[in-house]
Amino acid sequence: VFRSQHLEDESAGLSAYAIPRGAVETMVRCGMTGASLTESVAAVANAINAIVHEVRVQAISDQKEISLTITEIRPVTGGRHATHELILVTTYAVMAWLFGRRLPLLSADFPTPAPRHLLELRTLFAGELRFNQPNGALRFSADHAGLQVTRTPSKIPKFLKRAPYSLIEALLMKAELTALIRTNIYDGLPKGG
Questions:
Q1: Cα–Cα distance between 40 and 95 in angstroms, integer?
Q2: In a 3-state reduction of DSSP, which class is residue 159?
Q3: DSSP assignment of 154-190
Q4: How far is the C-alpha of 140 from the C-alpha of 98, rounded, in Å?
Q5: What DSSP state is assigned to residue 4?
Q6: Which of 72, 134, 139, 171 could cross-link to 67 by cystine, CB 3.0-4.6 Å?
Q7: Three-state DSSP class for 9?
Q8: Beta-carbon neighbour count of residue 133 at 10 Å?
Q9: How does pLDDT run along the chain (193 residues), one tens digit per residue?
């Protein structure tokens, strides 16, 4: 049964925590303010802290990695697995869309056991998946710290209009520039006949 309270919840009741309407847009707009991956991760962490009051998100940068770590303030028992998946997948998809490609990860950490749909999760994340970790986290190599956001504010409405499809699409598509270059090279090759 779909309760009316879920109509105002961007997670459609899948998360143990209500995710208010406009949460994804807030994450996108905040992430867009960063001049680099490091700054965007910090901005998205701040956005999640403002949106989901049951978790504390911290952005940490050092010489080895840039991480976004999620700690439960009020641990839940029911729906915990779906809650962490939802936050991590959504955050990773927002970052992928902002930077125009699926970002390589050192790891995506889950504080829960591996799910039955592990293959699907491996398809979405470009890096090692680690389970039964102390906290949820997205860990990027510091080698990518200087990456810059490729999207503009004018692209946000179209991205949000197609959500949640656009979130998954951001994780499954190859880098747009790479795809464009490959297409141009292929089109320029002599055609056999």
A1: 8
A2: helix
A3: GGHHHHHHTTTHHHHHHHHSPPHHHHHHHHHHHHHSP
A4: 15
A5: G
A6: 139
A7: strand
A8: 16
A9: 444 444 444 444 445 555 656 788 999 999 999 999 999 999 999 999 998 878 899 999 999 999 999 998 877 666 566 778 888 989 999 999 999 988 999 999 999 899 888 888 898 999 999 999 999 999 999 999 999 999 999 999 999 888 878 888 888 875 455 545 655 665 667 765 5
